[in-house]
Input
Amino acid sequence: MTDKVCNVLFICTHNSARSIIAEGLLNSMGRGNFRAYSAGSQPRGAVNAFALKALATLRIPTDGFRSKDWAEFARPGAPEMDFVLHGL
Output
């Protein structure tokens, strides 16, 4: 068994709801095994309030969530991804 934490990037168009929810869920449920991130091809610039409310209802912390461009994960120093999931 390995102690490696796998990095996962969830991508959707605006990075405002679906990918944000996926990031929050995997970070909460996969703690110790996965580190989730999210991004979008055309980020909206703000996270959908209903997505934040849904996560908060599940008692998943929402602080620090922001709508990000996927180019952020192609820059030097960005986390290396083990899995990239698109089209949620």
The chain has a mean pLDDT of 95. The helical segments are 18-29, 49-57. The chain has two helices and three strands. The beta strands are 6-12, 34-40, 83-86.
